[in-house]
Amino acid sequence: xxxxxxxxxxxxxxxxxxxxxxxxxxxxxxxxxxxxxxxxxxxxxxxxxxxxxxxxxxxxxxxxxxxxxxxxxxxxxxxxxxxxxxxxxxxxxxxxxxxxxxxxxxxxxxxxxxxxxxxxxxxxxxxxxxxxxxxxxxxxxxxxxxxxxxxxxxxxxxxxxxxxxxxxxxxxxxxxxxxxxxxxxxxxxxxxxxxxxxxxxxxxxxxxxxxxxxxxxxxxxxxxxxxxxxxxxxxxxxxxxxxxxxxxxxxxxxxxxxxxxxxxxxxxxxxxxxxxxxxxxxxxxxxxxxxxxxxxxxxxxxxxxxxxxxxxxxxxxxxxxxxxxxxxxxxxxxxxxxxxxxxxxxxxxxxxxxxxxxxxxxxxxxxxxxxxxxxxxxxxxxxxxxxxxxxxxxxxxxxxxxxxxxxxxxxxxxxxxxxxxxxxxxxxxxxxxxxxxxxxxxxxxxxxxxxxxxxxxxxxxxxxxxxxxxxxxxxxxxxxxxxxxxxxxxxxxxxxxxxxxxxxxxxxxxxxxxxxxxxxxxxxxxxxxxxxxxxxxxxxxxxxxxxxxxxxxxxxxxxxxxxxxxxxxxxxxxxxxxxxxxxxxxxxxxxxxxxxxxxxxxxxxxxxxxxxxxxxxxxxxxxxxxxxxxxxxxxxxxxxxxxxxxxxxxxxxxxxxxxxxxxxxxxxxxxxxxxxxxxxxxxxxxxxxxxxxxxxxxxxxxxxxxxxxxxxxxxxxxxxxxxxxxxxxxxxxxxxxxxxxxxxxxxxxxxxxxxxxxxxxxxxxxxxxxxxxxxxxxxxxxxxxxxxxxxxxxxxxxxxxxxxxxxxxxxxxxxxxxxxxxxxxxxxxxxxxxxxxxxxxxxxxxxxxxxxxxxxxxxxxxxxxxxxxxxxxxxxxxxxxxxxxxxxxxxxxxxxxxxxxxxxxxxxxxxxxxxxxxxxxxxxxxxxxxxxxxxxxxxxxxxxxxx
Length: 947
Hints:
Elements: H1 3-17, E1 32-35, E2 38-41, E3 49-52, H2 54-57, H3 70-73, E4 87-90, E5 93-94, E6 105-111, H4 114-117, E7 128-133, E8 139-154, H5 163-176, H6 185-193, E9 215-227, E10 231-243, E11 255-270, E12 273-289, H7 293-297, E13 308-310, H8 319-327, E14 336-338, H9 348-354, E15 356-374, E16 382-401, E17 406-414, E18 417-426, E19 436-458, E20 462-482, E21 489-493, E22 498-511, E23 515-525, E24 535-546, E25 559-573, E26 586-587, E27 611-613, E28 622-635, E29 640-656, E30 679-699, E31 702-719, E32 738-741, E33 744-747, H10 751-756, E34 759-760, E35 770-772, E36 780-781, E37 787-791, E38 799-809, E39 812-822, E40 825-827, E41 878-880, E42 883-894, E43 907-920, H11 924-927, E44 936-946
Parallel strand pairs: 4-7, 34-36
Antiparallel strand pairs: 1-2, 3-6, 4-5, 6-7, 8-9, 8-44, 9-10, 10-11, 11-12, 12-15, 13-14, 15-16, 16-19, 17-18, 19-20, 20-21, 20-22, 22-23, 23-24, 24-25, 25-28, 26-27, 28-29, 29-30, 30-31, 31-38, 32-37, 33-35, 38-39, 39-42, 40-41, 42-43, 43-44
């Protein structure tokens, strides 16, 4: 076992015997909430923690995602927590949320504020998502079976121009650029007729020739659970299978299949000793053809070449043609040779038809064991818990690759018929013989924790609890990749394991569940920092006050419960230190020189080459300093449940190497040589207000639950080491997700218009190009004229919100979940809108600028170049990302229990529903568009049976 883990455990034991107390959450009569290294009665929760009861949610919503519902049910969560990525822990072990399914999950706790995550140390400093799996209970053995079939339908496909339209407009682009037209009228005309698509191709990647209308996903899950006073057990097993949307060549047989088993056993070994063991095995297999079909779909021009060349249109009296056909190992359906060009010796069609396939296989094994001891005989209220886990993931691919040739045809009209009279061959045409291992990787994670817990109530009102713990984990990764069947390989293993190690202490007190104080802190360690700077202490203090128990609140009838909380924390972390040894300076040997560096004295001055960076022995941790206030309330006889938090946090000591003002300019020698070290300098500020409101009311037999949650969020770069000529170019003072660009003033309408305007420096400007505002009024449009256009919402939009609704009437129920955002902007800057060079033209170019459409145009002039002037972030391409998405809707019917009286069936439910059903936005079409694999709508039916 790693010595650091042993050190943690021994230290925790030693400190406990020195009478340092530990914490176990107060267990009240209401539900318990999973928090860091324990549980807390919801009544006594003082940190910013939100919980989703996934087990209950899965009764009204089918979703394989273990984090289902979080976006629409937890304020402050939008794929991250308060704008920052979170650490995911499954039963206390760092694991991927994708490796566990919703049916295996009991609940998910989102730990948002710094005080809530302090005990976890450095790698949890941006928030934690705690996934707790299901367990057995005191009950006879029960079996639940769930089966679901879903159809995944593309929301939309990009709309690109047909070949004849593309060639027509490309000729226009040529004229705009003052060069000769590329395509003659006869070619365009013949393409329009469509009588010979092999000579005049018009390739549509999104046609039914290549794609299914939908792909199908099916799955079945079984759960077995039960137990008695001595032993509880739980077992989850299931399989999922889905085919491919693509149906061409090897893709017809493509699939993804997974099989998983997860189980746990809780045992009472003695009246004072308990143990738990958990194990999971996951098998994932997939089969796929070769080539990047979806990538090529957005780039390969429709007229470029025909993927297939028909043999019956080839002149076999030509010896080379007959030889190619006779000796080909890749005759497609016995009727076609593969088409291509000298620039396209491989393409997505030939890859799918002739290149072979890839089988990917991953195997995951997860095991952990927990031992819990009641040490009340030594000291009343004292207990001990230790856990150890091993996770192992291996991945490898089995591949079969074949070499093939493509042919570029020479067409002619023979006796009034189009014929291929010549073929130019590119590539080698031969059969492969063996499968080979293409790539293999593995990851191994070891986790260890030990903790002493103490919980006592003195004189009825004084509730004391404490926790002392040691926790750590390490992940080791390795890879080995074969580039071809011969076996050329690249192997590698990360030099340093990803890890976390810390000691933690929490001490809590509350008086009569009315006044609360909590101290939590962690002593952390990081090998990323220089010696002497590798340890730090992260403290936090939380206060709570239940106002509803005060005498002055007794006459406030509509308040059932009201609690105020506040916390302060200063966490230290190395998450934002991207690599090891960044505190060290080093030189690079230049291969063609005799020394490590050389000095040149001359009129140009001295130049020292070979220095890559300077050293900084004072490099230290990044800090998260945070203040939060919160409110929890139950109102109007518990009709309304309210939770809200205001937070402001400063992330200080972020690393930078720009150092425009700290170091003299000659420290930065040139593009490849520098004496500049990494230093702790930059500072970011994030603040926001998150909230969640839930209302529950019964109207006769109709039970209605409505939830609304959201977050108002802002961020700012509060400190940067930068010098600019104009203040508006500074990053300091602007949002962390500020989108910078130019202010567009419309199109240039003439050469005279261009001459009068300040000179734009982005290539040659012509009428129909975009005109930008001269912000600094220096007569030149360049990078100094970019301004802050708005917030990009890269981590989270300025306002995000979620809505959930549950209606239950007798045996029928309806559940709906939606989420949305406002206040952010985006740029239409993907290849669908920025049609440059020889890229495909999308339908947006129909509204291009010409002299005839100068007054109504909504798109710049067409060009065969890179569009250096037009294709830049500016207000012309800017749009608001405001939207609301109906994420999930599900209808359920639960058969009455009396239906199955006298049978082994305890219950049966049927359900149907869908996900990603509707987007409401002014920019809906753009937001639903993907130039790669399409966004999907999901429609499903299923059942759940209990035995």
